[in-house]
Structure formats: C-alpha cells, structure tokens
Specification:
CBS-domain; 18% strand; three-stranded mixed beta sheet; two-stranded antiparallel sheet; 6 helices
Length: 156
Amino acid sequence: MKVTDILRVKGNTLYTVHPDQPLADAVQAMAEMDIGSLVVMEHGDLVGMLTFREVIAAVVAGGGSLGSRQVRSVMDDAPLTCTPETEIDEVRRMMLLRHARYMPVLDQRTLMGVISFYDVAKTVVDAQDFENRMLKAYIRDWPEETTQQTQKTQQP
C-alpha cells in the first residue's frame, strides 16, 4: 500500500500559510478549522510546516503569548516529506523515527497533500481488518471434504 492510497481516500484539501503571516493568525485558522498543521508555502514552494508542536513551543518561549511573531520564526523549515509512491510501511518508520505527526506529500516540487500519523494508522488498521474478514470468510467456507481428509490423515 502506498501514500497515494491514503490521499485518494482522504481527499486533496490543503491548508497553507505564508511564512510572513502573523503566527496569531495562523493559530486562529488552525483552531477554527480544527486542524493540527499548516503547510508553509512561499512562491509556490513548500518552505516549512507549522504544527501545534511549534505553536506550543512558541507560546512557552513567549511567556504565554504569541506576541507579534511571524510563522517563519517558529515553523519547521526542514519538514519530513514523502512522495505519493512511498510505501506506507516506510512512512510509518520515518514518522516514528522523527516523531512526526504530519508529513507533506510532494510529487517533484508539487504539493499533493499532507498525511497525518492518524491517516497512516487508520489505513493500516483498515487493511488489517479487511484481511481478517477475508481470512475468516475463507475459513468459514472451507470445503467439507478437505476437512474430512485432513482428519483421516491425522489419525494413526
């Protein structure tokens, strides 16, 4: 399974912010849209990520206030990225190693979307649930004669 499979289900809604935008405006947008991250774009290119982790650090550094800081001053300017063709297992490893909760998906330099650790976990659980249902259906539909032959073979 690949990242493109997550994006196909999730959709392609993107929330972006400019690095020179006031941090307070970005935080307000995150709260209003109930999202945990914003992609920081400048001149059509990904230049960073702003997540609640950077926001919390900025609030603590500001003594409980965001002040007049800009997004650029707190954003992660080297976010972990992947491509639509990256395997989900590789994404899981990358996210776990970097403690990343959000990952922009780039096709060359084009932003295709953002996936979250939740999206990855949900995809893995859904795939496992599907596999379990298929295995249970297979076992339930096991041919009767094969079961009888197996029992005869096991008896001395």
